[in-house]
Amino acid sequence: MTRHTRLVMSMIYWAFVLYIFVPLALMVMMGFKDSKFIGFPIRSWTLEWYIGVFGNSEVMSAFGYSMVIGITSTLISLFVGVWIAVLLNGRGFVGKGVIYGLTLLPALIPGIISAISFRIYAQLWGVPPGTGAIIWCHAVHNVPFVVLIVSARLGTLPKSYLDAARDLGADPLIAFMRVTLPYLRPALIGGSVFCMLISFDDFVRSFFLGGYQPTLPVLIFAKLRSGMSPEINAIATVVLVLTALLGIWAERTTRRLKKGY
Hints:
Blueprint: H1 3-30, H2 48-55, H3 57-88, H4 96-108, H5 111-124, H6 131-154, H7 159-167, H8 172-183, H9 185-201, H10 204-209, H11 216-224, H12 230-259
C-alpha cells in the first residue's frame, strides 16, 4: 500500500468518525442548554434537564417497562436460539437449509412489514396489544441473531471435548450442559446484550403492538410530536451512556472468557 493510498484511507476513516460522532456530541451539548428549545448559540448551560430525567416518573416508568420487555424477550430468544443453533450445527439432515433460511427470515423482513404482520397475527389469535404481544414479537425478531452468534461459536468447539465427555460416560444432555454450554458463555453474553439493545431500541414493533403503557422509544416519539427540546436530548444522552457502558462490559467480559479456553 502506497503512502498516498494510506493517506486517502486515513482521511476516509476520520471523515466517517466525524460523521458518526459529531451529531452525538451536538446531541449531548444540547441537553445542557438552559432553554426550552434546541439550537445555537448556547448562551447559558444547566444540568436541569439531565437531573430532570431521573426525577421524571413518566420517563423512569417507560425505562423500566422497556427493560422488562428487553430482558424477558432476550431470555426467550436465548432459549430458542441456542437449541436451534445446536440443531443446525449437528449432523446434516434433510431440510436443514430450509430451516436455517426460515430461522433467519425474521431478521431480514423490514421492521414496518414485520410489525404490521405481527399485529394482524395477534388479532387473529386474540392476543391483546400490550406487554405480551411486544415480548412475543421482539423474541421472534431476536432469535436469528442468537442463532448466528451461537453458531459461530459452536463452529470453533473442538470435537475432542465432546468425545472426551462421552468416553467418560456422559450422555448427550450432560455433555451439552457441562461442556457445550460453558463453552458458549461468551456467545451467550454477546448475544444477550445484542438482543437486549435491539429490543430496548425497537420503536416500530413496540408502537404497533403496544398498549396504553409506552416503551421509552415510543415515549420519546410522543414527546417529539410537540417539538424538539433539551429534555429529549438529555433522555437520549442518558440512554446512550448506559448503552455504551453495557457494550463495554459485554466486550471485556467476552474477551476474558474467550481467553479462558
